[in-house]
Amino acid sequence: KSLSLQDLRKSIGFLPTNPPMLNGTVRYNLDPENEYDDKDLWDALTTVSLNSFISDLSEGLNSDDVYSFDRETRRLFYLAIMILKKFNIIVVEEPNLSL
Q1: Exposed, middle or buried by CB within 10 Å (0-12, 13-18, 19+), for 29?
Q2: Is 47 exposed, middle or buried (0-12, 13-18, 19+ CB in 10 A)?
Q3: Which of 59, 66, 30, 33 has its CA nearest to residue 45?
Q4: Alpha-carbon distance 26 to 14, whole Å?
Q5: Cα 34 to the chain's mean position, in Å?
Q6: What's the 3-state SS for 10-49?
Q7: Which residues contact 74 (CB under 8 A, 6 or more apart)?
Q8: What's the confidence (pLDDT) of residue 96?
Q9: How many CA atoms lie within 13 A of 25 on its CB side?
Q10: Residue 15 CB coordination number (10 Å)
């Protein structure tokens, strides 16, 4: 069985060292195309152990405080996005400090 290039690209996620956040709410950053319901979003956040962190924000999923997230929180957040999108392969960018 062959795999089209388009299907291959849809199955690979990339986790950058310093992920950017979009203007908008936590919900918008997780799901900018509004494809998933709240349960899916919370399940993904729970999988990466960010559910308590997000629920502690003043407006939870509707909080627009995404720019205060530190780098490690943003990386976990991006991992939650990849879980939502059900990527089969996740490429993790890690800087090599020994260079």
Answers
A1: buried
A2: middle
A3: 30
A4: 19
A5: 14
A6: HCEEEECCCCCCCCCCHHHHHCCCCCCCHHHHHHHHHHCC
A7: 18, 19, 20, 21
A8: 64
A9: 15
A10: 18
Q: Which two tokens stand for residue 34?
A: 């509004």
Report the alpha-carbon distance of residue 58 to residue 35 in Å, rounded. 24
Question: Are the C-beta atoms of residues 93 and 15 closer than 8 Å to each other?
Answer: yes
Find where tokens 């990386």 sit. Answer: 75
Q: Which residues contact 49 (CB under 8 A, 6 or more apart)?
A: 76
Distance CA 29, CA 46 (A): 16
CA distance 25 to 3: 35
Rounded to the nearest 5°, which phi and psi values hold at 14? -120, 125
pLDDT per residue as tens, the chain (99 positions): 788 998 888 888 988 888 999 999 999 999 999 999 999 999 999 999 999 999 999 999 999 989 889 999 999 999 999 999 999 888 888 876 554
